[in-house]
Task: structure prediction
Amino acid sequence: MSLITSGSFAGPAGELESILNDCAAPSAGVAAVLCHPHPLYGGTMHTRIVFQAARTLCDLGMPVLRFNFRGVGRSAGAYDHGAGEQQDLEAAMARMRELRPELALLVGGFSFGATMVARLLARSAPTGLRCALLLGLPADRGEIPADWRWQGPKLMISGDHDEFASVASLEAYFARLAPPKQRAWIPGGDHFMAARIPEFRDALARLVRSALG
Result:
């Protein structure tokens, strides 16, 4: 059972709207921060995959913080082409450290959110980060760095019919990532895993359990 709390926290461009799925007694030793898809194409922290990922991680015993990037929902600011959004992600990670300082972090994102995770970890190695999660990485939409400064466990999950990333592109990206790493395909899954949510949740739980030991 989790306690769901809506609120906000300070970001570099102003307050960022958020939802915390909190666990009374976390059992995974990890707290999670999740990023949503592209702000200019309807992406929010309520996007189905982000919501279902939060549910799954909370079921594994993790507090989970979702947030809206700047300019989305009640979050202050305006879209910043990915640069400011990486700062928003760093602010969300700092907020979760304030809330649960005793726990390590898992940071993940879906689509544009996954790109923000990759770009952040390509240039920095945050302390206390235990695992990174890339969901629906849009490997055919823009340059996404694969040479990361942070070298911990990396997890990738995508549908094998993703409109924004071919199997070949995703396999090539995964091959470039340094280990440790794991990936899962959702057979028949499109970018948003339509009609494949149970399979997505099962794959996510399996990979996260494996990565966290």
The first strand starts at residue 2 and ends at 11.
